[in-house]
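Support case: user asked for a sample of complex input and structure output to validate their parser. Sending the pair below.
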Amino acid sequence: MSSTEQGTSSAAPAEPTTAPESAAAPEVPESFYYVHGKDKVVHKVSAGALQHSALIHGMISNLGYTEEQAKANPFPFENIDGDILQMVVDWCNQHKGKPTPPEDTNLPKQKEKLFDLVLAVNYLEIKELLTYCCKQVAMMVKGKSPEEIREIWMIPTDAEDEAAEKEAKKRAGKEAAGETAAAAGDAK
Amino acid sequence: MPIRIFSIPAADFQYALHCMDIGDLIAFSLCSNRTKNLVKSSSRKIDPISAQIDENTILLKIEPNLQFLLREDSFSIELHRGNGIEIWRKPGFTQRDFIAHFLSISRSSIIPELRMIELFQWEPMKSEDVLKGIKFQIMDHKRRLTRADGEELLVTVGPGVVVFEFLSPQDLSIQ
């Protein structure tokens, strides 16, 4: 995790780092919450930064955690890779309380990271970041031919789609037959 | 490393489509039937195409800087979008299929403007001269064409411009 005044990472809930002192410090001390991903590394994030995530913001509002409770119970996001959650936390910290710029050049350029980021951001309901990510996804195929797009986005051919559809129908048929047989067995 | 685009949530994918320019969207639509249907059902509006026929080639214009040239002897289209000429190949796709595809993704059954270079003589046209596979002959010299199968096409004639209204995009598909 990049060093920011709002957060830190560790294998266990981390001790709050000292917030920077400044003349314009808010009167009310800022609350901090903790999140971890698949790698169990805990990230400490301010409530202000987490406001970007509608999901986490909703969880905070509903749970009414005190800071101590929040520290003891980090929000678990087991479906999100640690490095992806790190990116999300960094983005939230960088854009805390700021108007979001029309473009964000700090998003990952690696395709696989970008797609994982889209899934994570969609799950966490971070609308602005999702918008940037989707734009980045669209930029991947800018100026490309259909063959190149098919390769970049792994688009199945018509024949592959038809084969997958047949396979799905066959599987559904087998499942339905299995359920019927089970129901008949129960009836006996 | 390639990535499965269909693994991202549908709404996000639709937003990505929304961010693409029309040329990229058309390229995407040509990837498969599924991608064609996705473009067709998306909220993106593709302007109606205009066509210009010159002997064996058909030039489809989507936007001033987006033109596709269809040749009768290849399963490909030439794309002109300001960065030189690109060739997109689509095995098995004829001129008719490409036109049907463009009509389909623009959700239109009409080519609003059709210009025919050096064919604008009111005399019986041979099917091979205009839009391969669609057989028609001029019934009168004004506003009505009839295809060889008896179905009528509506046509509007203007100065140097003929507008054909096909019954549906399927009229252009392979029988």
